[in-house]
Prior knowledge:
Mean pLDDT: 94
Low-confidence stretches: none
Order of helices and strands: EHHEEEHEHEEHHEHHEEEHEHEE
Strand order of the largest sheet: 8-9-10-11-12-7-13
Structural class: alpha+beta
Strand content: 25-35%
Oligomer: single chain
Largest sheet: 7 strands, mixed
CATH class of the largest domain: Alpha Beta
Radius of gyration: 20 Å
Number of helices: 10
Helix content: 25-40%
Shape: globular
Amino acid sequence: MSNVNSDITFKRVTVSDKAIINSINAELPTYADWAFGTLLTWWDFYDDLEYALHNDNLLIRSSYLALGARPHITLLGMNNVDKTIRDIAHFQIERGEPAYIASSPHYVIESIADPTQLAIEEDLDNAEYVLSTKDHSELQKKELKKIRHKVQAFQNAYSHLDIHTEIQPIITDDHKVRLINSLHTWDNSFKNDRDKMESAVINKSLIHSDVLNLRSMTIYVGGVIAGFALFKYIDDVTINVNHMKVNYAYKDIFHYSMYRLAIHMASEGVKYLNIEQDLGIEGIRTYKQRLHPTEMKRKYSIIIK
Length: 305
């Protein structure tokens, strides 16, 4: 491939870019990973998130997927995709980077006219799990029987302590402090680097909760915070569950928290809960598969030969 100017200009993402990124996402099939709130928190974890508009597509550049090691480019859009892929490759080659597009959605792959010079691989670790709100608020399907039993076990074990759920459409500063303090007091909150990374992202999400339209659900047991979820709408019928953190001293509380969130969102007319990817972590993958998602939002990596 010849080394020519790709004419791609990236700029750092700031909160002021919310409107333009949201407007592009609104025209594309919904994924949680590229919702503005996810980009500003997870994808900017290493303070290097950039975007470019090219051929009426959105390009995202960040080292998040490589845990800070090197920047990757993700392509979002369906316009003149073959040329856009070539331009991305030129941009990367000019900078001594591999000609590689990371974790792009299915609609990009379906828009490629000539894949002969490409090696396309499914990115299983970053596929997004989408649950039916109806199924998980009712728990009547045969395949959800074990989860129903765990929810009932939680209720039977702790109902004498008064189990109470609150939804906060706007998270107050006082409640942000209560959530963070609770997270830091629970056992095993920071078992590994991934947990520490998530804790930092939760802090940033709460700082920008107004800009990100972030909401919270808090579970109280005996008047004490025992779990919480942070979530946002990503389209009219789908929420993205960004974080669900619980005190595992209460057995089966995670299952109960997901159930309570599904019940509340069903009452608002939400049809789907996007609970994001499993990152190839065996325990997370096993758990999410057992939730029997109604859909998997698939992603693919593209190697340009």
